[in-house]
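call fold target=Transposase
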Amino acid sequence: MMGATWRRWMTEIKAKSYDPNTPLDELVSIRLVPQKLTPEVWEALCHYWNTNEFQEKGRKPTRIEIIKISHRSKKRGDAPIDDEVVRVEALLDEAVRRRLQNKPEGTQPTEVHEDAFQL
């Protein structure tokens, strides 16, 4: 019960005080530190919430990621289940690569995954 209460409290703090669109320096130095947190803990939380690893955990997989995961054999070390999967993955990767060429520098491939399904 304490773990659930702690997670709920952290979720509330993040919802009220953390803005992923605000630069990290500004979050740590200018914003008010949430009640009951030390500045050091607040800074550590901001750094953690800003990491790619944390951000990846909170998002839904794209259709391309689902296709790649679901068409692999766990028994054969994540090898594609057949040659058609290899062909489809190559086509999707090419579509993503073409879409990325038209986007600003630094755009992540997952940001154009849905666009890759459009003709």
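return ok
The longest helix spans residues 83-101. The mean pLDDT is 76.
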